[in-house]
Amino acid sequence: MVEGRVPARIGHLFAERGIGFLKPTYPAAGPGAVPSRSARRQPRYVWRPGRLLALAAVPLALVTVVPAVRLGWDAVLLWHAERAAKAAKADKNFFALEQAVATASGALDSVQGNLRLLFYLKWIPGVAPVYRNLLPLATAGADGTRAAHTVLPSLAPVAAAFGYRTAFSAQAALPDARQKLAVAAADLPAIAGALRAAYPDLQAAQAQLNAVPTQGIPRFLAAREAKVLAPARRYLNLAVQNLPTLMQAAPVVQEILGYPTPQRYLVFFQNSGEMRPTGGFMTAYGILTFDHGAMGRLQAHDIYSLIGAVQYRPPAPAVFTHAFGILHWHIRDANTSPDVPTTVANIYRFYDSIPHVQPVSGVIFTDVWLVDALLKDVGGVTLPPPYNIRLTAANANYEMEYLAEKAHIPGITANTRKAFIGEMFHELLHKVFSARGSRLLAVARTLGEALHRKWVMVYFNNPQAEALVARYNWGGIVDRHTGRADYLQIVDENLMGHKDNYYLNESVSSLVVREPDGRYLETTRVTWVNPAVYNGWMVVPYRALIRLYVPKGSVLMGIYGIDGFLQNHTNPVLNKSVFGGHIDMPDRPSYYDPPARQSMTVTYLLPKGIDPRRFIIQEQPGIKPQQWQITVGSVTRRFTLTHDMTLTFPRPAADQSAP
Q1: pLDDT value at residue 3
Q2: Beta strand pairing status for 281-291 and 5-6?
Q3: Which of 107, 242, 365, 373 suits 57 as a labelling partner, its CA being 20 to 30 A distant?
Q4: What share of the chain is helix, strand, coil (3-state, %, to 5)?
Q5: CA nearest 583: which of 528, 624, 535?
Q6: What per-residue confidence (pLDDT) applies to 416?
Q7: How far is the C-alpha of 300 from the C-alpha of 284, rounded, in Å?
Q8: What's the mean per-residue pLDDT of the chain?
Q9: pTM for this structure?
C-alpha cells in the first residue's frame, strides 16, 4: 500500500497525542551517511493505512456490530419475557407477571436505543421502510409496557382476591364474589392514581402505533398483525379516549358501590318476550345493596306483590284500560316511556307511596338477553332445590317462562312463583365472579356488550353518576337534542301479556324524498313476521301499541295498518313528535300455514330545517336485532340494528346548491 505524505504540522500534532496511524520518517543522506541534526528535527510524516483502518473500525463497530448484537440479546429477553408472562398467567402468579412485564419493558427500551444507533439504515434502499416502521413499533412497545408496569402494582390487591400470588401474598381466592367486588371497590383510588401516572405513556404508545401503516409492518411481524398489533391499536385508542373520564369517575363509582355510606338500588327484571318500552314487562323486582363495595344478596319478588302495597293509584292510560280492563295504573306498567329517566320518575311515584319504604339510590333494568349471554359464557347454572333445573343459553327463556307460568313445584305459591329469578341470578353471579382466563374475558365482553346494546340500563339519583351514564349511553336516554339531523325510534308495547316477542322478526324501511318547497317527506314502514305457531300461552295473536318518535314539529300525512288508538301528539319532555297506533296481528294456527305477517306504514313531513343526510336511529331496549333499510334520495343503506346508530348520506345531486 502506498504511504502518503502528511504536512509536518499535522504530523507533530498527532504524534504529540500518541496517535499512531502516522509514521515519522527522516530524509536519507546517502549510503552510510548520518542525517544532520537539523534534518532529524524535521521529520516527514506518512500515513499508516492499516492502523488508520483499524481505528476507523472502532466507531463503525459501535454503530453496527454492537447494536446488532444487543438487538439479538434483546430479542432473547423478549422471548423469555413472553414465555414467563404466559406461565405466570397459567400459574396465577401475579408477582411473576409483574417481573415479566418489567423485563419486557427494559428489553424494549434497549431495542429502541439500539435502533436509534442504527439511524443510517433509513437511507439504505430496501432496508429504509422496515427501519422507519420498526422504530415506532419498538417505541410504542416500550411506552406501553412501561404503562403496564406502572399500573400493575395497583392491581395487586384485586389479583390477590382472585387467588393470584403477589409479592406479599399467597392467599387463596376469596370464596365469595361479593368479597371480591368489595376489594376491587376499595382499590379504586389506587388504580385511578396509577392510571393517571401511566396515561402519558399510553398516549405516546398510541401515537407511535397509529403512525405505522398496516402495510408497513416488517415481514417477520406480519403474522402478528391481526393477532396482536390490530387489537393493541384498538384497545389503546379506547383507553386513551375513555381513561380521563374513568379516572375522574373513580370517586363517583366508589359512591355507587357504597362508599362512604351504603346504597340501595331497585332492580327490575324485564321479560323481553313481552316487549315494553324500556325492554320488556317488569316481571320481578329486587333490592340490591352495596356497603363499602360489599354486594348484598339479591332477592327477587313477583312484581304483582307490590300492587297491594302501593298507595299511588292514578287512572290507567286508555290503552291499558282497553287491553287489560283495568281502571288504575299499576307499577308493573310504569315503564310506558322508552326514556329511562322518564320511566324512573313514574316508578318513583309508585314506589315512594309505599308506607315506610326505604329510599333507593337508583334503578337498574336488566333483560333476558343478558341472562342468555352470561349463561353461554359460564356454561349454564343449576337451580337449587326445590327447582333442580339446569338452565343454559339454549333453554333458559322457555324454562323460566314455564317456571313462572305453568310449573307446579311443592312449596312454591303464587306469591313466590318468581323467586327462582333471584336464585338464578345468585348462581349466575357466583359463576361470573369466579370466572378466569378465557371465560373471564368472555364475561367482560358480554358486560360491555350488555351496556352497549341496552341489555342493562342504569339510573342514579346522584347527578355526577347519571352524567357518567349519559356520556357512555348506558342509561336508555332518548336523545333530546339532535340539531338538524333526522331522528327515528320505533317502540313496541306488547299488550296481550304473552311472549310473542321471543319469536317475532321485525324489519323497518324508511324512504326520504325532497319536496318542491325544500322540506322532506318521510315514509316509514314497519313489518312484523311471526313464524311461531299459536299455543295459547307463549304465542298468541300479537296486539301492541306501536309508536314512532320523530323530530319535533313533524306533520302526520297518513298512517295505515292500525285498528285504533291513533298516536299523533308532541312529547315536550323528549322534544319529539309521536305517531302510531294499535295493531292486531293474526296468529299462525299451524305449521302448515304461512307465518303470520302485519305491517304499519306512516308518512310524515319533516320540519323545515331538518336535513336527513344525518340520520340518528335509537334502538328500543330489549328488541331483537332488526333489519333496516334507509333511503335518502338515491342512496340506500341496509344494516342490522343492534344498537344506537348515526348514519350519514351524501348530498343529492339536486341539492348541491343547498346550504
Answers
A1: 47
A2: unpaired
A3: 107
A4: 45, 25, 35
A5: 528
A6: 81
A7: 6
A8: 85
A9: 0.80
